[in-house]
Amino acid sequence: xxxxxxxxxxxxxxxxxxxxxxxxxxxxxxxxxxxxxxxxxxxxxxxxxxxxxxxxxxxxxxxxxxxxxxxxxxxxxxxxxxxxxxxxxxxxxxxxxxxxxxxxxxxxxxxxxxxxxxxxxxxxxxxxxxxxxxxxxxxxxxxxxxxxxxxxxxxxxxxxxxxxxxxxx
Length: 169
Description:
This protein has 169 residues and is α+β, with helices and mostly antiparallel strands. 31% of the residues lie in helices and 17% in strands. It has helices at residues 9-21, 35-43, 55-66, 121-126, 156-168, and strands spanning 71-76, 82-86, 89-92, 95-100, 106-107, 132-133, 143-144, 150-151. α3 packs across α5 (156-168).
């Protein structure tokens, strides 16, 4: 008997739409090493996808929604992924996505941020098999609590998304 996907195609489309409709629930702060990139992008003629830079919390949202027993979070390391070239400088990034533990199906709600040639969606998708399951060590301490202690996931950002999802679902 064949395993059914963790998330149906229809449900995944609904999740992507929900994330796009609720970008205001994501933390808006850009990590320091990307501040100049986002400033340069804002000054360029390139249009940013609304979920650019939101791949970790979007993937963590899916994992929290469907459970760690079904969904794992994987990373494409930065050395593998040139993101964009601006003003003669090539920026590299990591990229996070969710993967069904049972079927291996990929759920990448922010893949549409990769529009810059030649580092487009097909380039990123070709790197999925080389990805590393890293949430166990990297994402484990993604946020701090109100007392400044580093704590395990989900973060407040993911909790806001889950709360809103529960309201509309």
